[in-house]
Specification:
This protein is α/β, with parallel strands linked by helices. The protein has 16 helices and 9 strands. It is 45% helix and 12% strand. Helix 13 links the parallel strand 6 and strand 7. The protein is globular, with a radius of gyration of 19 Å.
Length: 360
């Protein structure tokens, strides 16, 4: 935590520097920064036009396209940060585990990792193959300069391990937990290999111009507290600290994590993402005010009439109580069909809200 507190120190004058990065480091800001998970996606016509000609993976692997959809979404919405368009599973391919997206099924790994032998076969020396993501970040960073925060990201070790083992989406994570419980040595070897690859992947992104790295632990809510401590915490902590040593703050985000927030904060991540299942002030107390927080509007609220949406946005902002370190976001990603004008309206609501109103 102390390391990241000194990141991008520059000068101490009030509000100098990028609003989004300042908030990540719990420094004063002129207003609450706002961005959205999945802000580039199928709900936006410009993205759908690109998808008519390219698959998701093709967009990820062509820096010009990845930069284009990243920039278009950030500019159209008027947000304070641009997250690079990429996919959590990209690191699997250089590890020797190809995957594809199947219509109606999402990502599918055709040869899941199910044994110690499968784990041993995974490579850790090809992270440089992911340089196309770094090239996209370079283009986005060059376009925005210091106007917006640039967010790179990766999946957390537990979530990526689960994808590798399950082979696709899962309700119960039976195969993951069988390996986790039944061959703990293989499980930890798998996490070690992931940390090696993810650390280098993040390094490429930071060197290319990412101001912040977000670590997505999308499936961490499948674990109870004891299992998180025993089988996931240390790996997440190692990855968080490795990225912080590169000189950038880390956002650690998961879903259905109400019971895990204190444990997630113990990784030392600078910012903890909160989903929408509890009020923001309760989540922040669980995290501890020594961390910034990100969130936490229910993404489906974006379908509500504007008068209801305005009430919910202000509830989140008032719950933050003007404390430095709040980044407004959704509690998960924007879903297909979301009205773009409602997303833009939320940005306007956050911009118009003044911190002195927080207790009003």
């Amino acid at each position: 935590m102390e390391m990241a507190e000194n990141v991008k120190a520059g000068v101490d004058s009030l509000f100098e520097g990028n609003r989004f990065v300042r908030a990540c480091l719990r420094r004063p800001v002129d207003r609450t920064p706002v961005w959205f998970l999945r802000q580039a996606g199928r709900y936006m016509q410009e993205y759908r036009e690109v998808r008519k000609h390219h698959t998701l993976v093709e967009i990820c692997k062509q820096p010009e396209l990845a930069a284009e959809v990243t920039i278009t979404a950030a500019e159209k919405l008027g947000v304070d940060a641009a997250i690079i368009f990429a996919d959590l599973l990209l690191p699997l391919e250089p590890m020797g585990l190809p995957f594809e997206f199947q219509a109606g099924e999402g990502p599918v790994v055709h040869h899941p990792v199910r044994s110690a032998e499968d784990v041993r076969a995974l490579r850790t020396d090809k992270a440089a193959d992911l340089a196309y993501v770094a090239r996209a970040i370079e283009k986005v960073a060059r376009h925005f300069g210091d106007r917006l925060g640039i967010i790179g990201f990766c999946g957390a070790p537990y979530t990526l391990a689960s994808y590798m083992i399950e082979g696709s989406g899962s309700r119960n994570y039976v195969h993951t937990k069988q390996l986790m419980y039944g061959d703990t040595a293989a499980w930890h070897t798998l996490l070690d290999k992931l940390i090696t690859v993810l650390t280098e992947f993040c390094r490429l992104q930071v060197q290319a111009g990412a101001d912040v790295i977000q670590v997505f632990d999308s499936w961490i809510g499948s674990l109870g507290v004891a299992d998180y401590r025993d089988y996931a915490f240390e790996a997440s902590k190692r990855l968080v600290r490795a990225v912080q040593e590169m000189g950038v703050p880390v956002i650690y985000f998961g879903v259905e994590t109400t019971a895990l927030l204190g444990e997630m904060a113990a990784t030392g991540a600078d910012v903890i993402g909160l989903d929408w299942r509890q009020p923001l002030d309760e989540g922040w107390r669980a995290v501890g005010h020594g961390h910034a927080v990100q969130g936490n509007l229910d993404p489906i609220t974006l379908f509500a009439p504007l008068e209801i949406l305005a009430v919910r946005v202000k509830e989140v902002l008032r719950a933050a109580a003007g404390r430095p370190g709040h980044i407004f976001n959704l509690g998960h990603g924007i879903v297909p069909g979301t009205p773009v004008e409602n997303v833009q309206a939320v940005v306007g609501m956050v911009r118009e809200f003044r911190l002195e109103e927080a207790n009003g």
